[in-house]
Design brief:
It catalyses: beta-D-fructose 1-phosphate + H2O = D-fructose + phosphate; beta-D-fructose 6-phosphate = dihydroxyacetone + D-glyceraldehyde 3-phosphate. Belongs to the damage-control phosphatase family. Sugar phosphate phosphatase III subfamily. Its cofactor is Mn(2+). InterPro entries: ARMT-1-like_metal-bd_sf, ARMT1, ARMT1-like_metal-bd. GO terms for molecular function: metal ion binding; phosphatase activity. By secondary structure, the protein is α/β, with parallel strands linked by helices. The protein has two domains: 90 residues, no CATH class; 250 residues, 3-Layer(aba) Sandwich (Rossmann fold), CATH 3.40.50.10880. The chain is built from 17 helices and seven strands. The chain has a seven-stranded mixed β-sheet with strand order 1-7-6-5-2-3-4, with helices on both faces. α1 packs across α9 and α8 runs antiparallel to α11. Bound molecules: 1-O-phosphono-beta-D-fructofuranose.
Length: 364
């Protein structure tokens, strides 16, 4: 096998990773300081983390999981760390700074709650009153990933995002589901709020149409990357859905009671590593049925956060995955595979980070 492309680093000015550290993270810390009655010590820890991440050395964590996930980065300059590792570590340190592991207060909860209590939601979800097709449910879940709360820190006020698929394996996924019905479907979730509501609509469609006999939702074990969904977020969204048209919330509630819908978490979902390093128990759970992987960060973790040629083969990059897998992702970062050369030549400069293009990539 040929050598893998290099991983993305954070130290090159004006690249996407550099911007995340120099623009997105400072904006996030400002919002957190504004949203919470944090103590002087918590405030100092947050601003100290920001300063350390821009100029300092990575402080070791005593957490046994992180002792294992360190991969030699503790004690080295942040500037030299891989983007994926450093970003994940930043969010872990942010939780320490606000005492999440002793208070249990999700620092991102105010933003997630604002999404679910947005009065516009009821109107937006009127489409649920009609019968929906698999295509509609997949499209809703895909475009639900358009504006995660972290991404909006950089793109607020830009034009509405256009539907623009650069890779479209939807038909192959739908055929797989029909040929293997009723199968188990694992969904590795991404963001809470609107995206999760749409993911739950897809879940309901898979269960009620008979395409899936069971759906397993994988969530983060703790708050992460601003809006990533935890168990609490799934419960909140299920309750919110019960107030929206179409009966989807009640059906999902019943599916959970009947054991056809389960919510699972695993420490590795917050690891700073790619899925190729996932432990055996997680891999075993994803070996059965089809796995739907949501969002940009999960895509980076699936293929490795590497400078792939955009035309290189997706299937090859995920050949380690324990079962059939498909990604529903809005492209928000540089990592891209499986784009046909003709399609690539049509795409505008900066398309990989504009959040205006989408991909449904499958290895079935
Ligand atoms: O995974 P998501 O919610 O689709 O997107 C996460 C994201 O906004 O954050 C990461 C950088 O901070 C990128 O992978 C991406 O831009």
């Amino acid at each position: 096998m040929s050598a893998l492309p290099p991983v993305y680093l954070i130290d090159e000015p004006d690249t996407f990773p550099w911007q995340v550290f120099h623009h997105r993270h400072p904006a996030l810390i400002r919002r957190l300081l504004d949203a919470h009655p944090y103590s002087p010590a918590q405030r100092a820890a947050l601003t100290g983390l920001l300063a350390e991440s821009l100029e300092g050395v990575i402080a070791p964590l005593a957490d046994p999981l992180w002792q294992d996930w360190d991969r030699g980065h503790f004690g080295t300059p942040w500037a030299k760390a891989p983007f994926l590792w450093a970003e994940s570590y930043f969010y872990r340190r942010l939780l320490d700074a606000v005492d999440y592991f002793t208070t249990g207060v999700d620092p991102f909860a105010p933003f997630k709650t604002a999404e679910l209590t947005d009065p516009a939601l009821a109107d937006e979800y009127q489409w649920l009153a009609k019968d929906i097709s698999l295509d509609t449910a997949v499209t809703a879940s895909l475009y639900g990933n358009q504006a995660d709360l972290g991404f909006r820190l950089l793109t607020a006020g830009t034009d509405p995002i256009h539907q623009h698929l650069v890779v479209d394996d939807t038909q192959a996924v739908e055929t797989w589901l029909a040929d293997n019905a009723p199968s188990r479907v694992n969904v590795v979730l991404d963001n809470a709020g609107r995206e999760l509501l749409a993911d739950l609509v897809l879940t309901d469609h898979l269960l009620t149409s008979g395409l899936a006999r069971a759906v397993v939702l994988h969530v983060k074990p703790h708050p992460y990357f601003v809006s990533d969904a935890t168990c609490t977020d799934v419960h909140d969204c299920m309750r919110r859905l019960r107030g929206l048209p179409g009966g989807c919330g009640d059906r999902l509630h019943e599916a959970a009671a009947a054991g056809r819908l389960t919510i699972r978490t695993h420490p590795f979902h917050c690891a700073p590593l790619s899925f190729v390093d996932m432990p055996g128990d997680l891999a075993a759970g994803l070996a059965e049925g089809l796995t739907v992987v949501k969002g940009d960060l999960n895509y980076r973790r699936l293929v490795g956060d590497r400078a792939w040629q955009p035309t290189s083969e997706f299937r090859q990059a995920v050949s380690y995955f324990p079962g059939p897998v498909t990604v529903l992702r809005i492209v928000k970062s540089e990592v891209v595979l499986g784009v046909r050369p003709e399609r690539l030549s049509e795409l505008p400069a900066g398309w990989r980070v504009s959040g205006k293009h989408a991909m449904v990539s499958a290895a079935l």
